[in-house]
Amino acid sequence: MHYVIERVRNINYLFDRKGSALLIALMILFIFLALGFAVTAMTSSEIKISSNHLKSTQAFYLAEAGIAEAINVLLFNPSASGLIIKQMPIDNGKVTVTGSWSGNEVTLEAVGAVGSTQRTVKKTLRIIVGTSLFSNAITTFAKSNENWFELQNGVKITGDIRVGVNLGIANNVIVNGILYTIEEPSYNNSSVNVVVAEELELPVFPEIPEWQKPADLGQPKVYEYVNRADLFNTGDKYYQADIVELNDNLELNNVYIECSYLKLTGTKYSGITFIVDGAIDIESNDIDFQNVNLIAKDSIKIEGNNINYEQGIINTKGALNVTKNNGQYSDVQIFSHGYVFFSQNTTITRGTIISNKAITLENNFNLLGHILAKGWLDVGNNTIVNGSLSAGGLVIGNNSVITNDQDTGAPIPPTISM
């Protein structure tokens, strides 16, 4: 009997141990399940946080890219404002950029978006216009004694303008480009868009190149007074004379004639460099110059209708006066330390005119090239320019058309940087 009771007790004990083990196992399973759920929740949360962080980072870099793209837009259109870039797609997002101006400063605000995640970047830029001389339709020089620039009625400009003097804009003026100025115009009757840039950089008037006589000319053939062209047709390459007055034609090949005074009244001259210590007077209608250089220490005066001048240099320490009509010039460089005057109906193709003082162009002047005047530039009515104009101050006459062109083919002296 005792044995039976003990066996029953042992059996109950075993059942108690098995129940405890099951309970413990269930508790451990519950703990592991709880840990698993916690880890899963944490992992899911971390994945969500990581995804949001990734989208936020992507949106930030989209905004930065939008700022960079807006700067590129401003390079081509410096007056751009308001909505500059609208919902531009980049990778898996989009960017929008707006701009607001204050003087010559623009504040760009870019919003990058990836899905519903957005980041905003703001940057303020100061626009300073460069000083490339021929990259604008019209430029005024720095440190000028002039103080006025006027666009008269009906003027049309294609290209940018940089103005460092007082500005006036008359009626019906069109500017297809950006007009930069250091202050608001005195009057703007055409409501031309103007960008006021207080730190506007302006070029300095360049040095006029000095003409240099070749050192290898050798000994000259010497005369005193010459009034016959055949005296220079002896086969020599270098002549010297006191006074030269020619009323007949002279066609040579790379010959140098040096004298103290020169007067030409013939109708054709070619292949000659005239080096004159004094003045040059040209008085003839229908005169034709081919590959002729006129170098003078005094003034040069050209009087005659229908002048044709192809390929050469005109360089004077004095003034240049072209006082008759219908002149045709091509592939020329004109340098003057004095005043320059061209009469009406003059056409210059592939030409550069540089004066240390003022330049006056009468009505119906046509130019493919560039003009640089340290002083005043007076452009007559109905002028057409493809190239550039630069001066201390200037007035553009009625109904003139100025179009910026950096590739005119006009010869540019090495002392001037493009």
Number of helices: 1
Low-pLDDT stretches: 1-5
Strand content is 35-45%
What is the approximate shape? elongated
Taking the sheet with the most strands, its summary is: 28 strands, parallel
Cα gyration radius (Å): 41 Å
The mean pLDDT is 87
Main structural class: alpha/beta
Helix content: 10-25%
Overall strand count: 32
Euclidean distance between termini CA atoms: 125 Å
Describe what this molecule looks like in 3D.
- By secondary structure, the chain is α/β, with parallel strands linked by helices.
- It contains one helix and 32 strands.
- The longest helix is centred in the first third of the chain and has 75 residues, at 2-76.
- The protein is elongated, with a radius of gyration of 41 Å.
- The protein starts with a helix and ends in a 14-residue tail after the last strand.
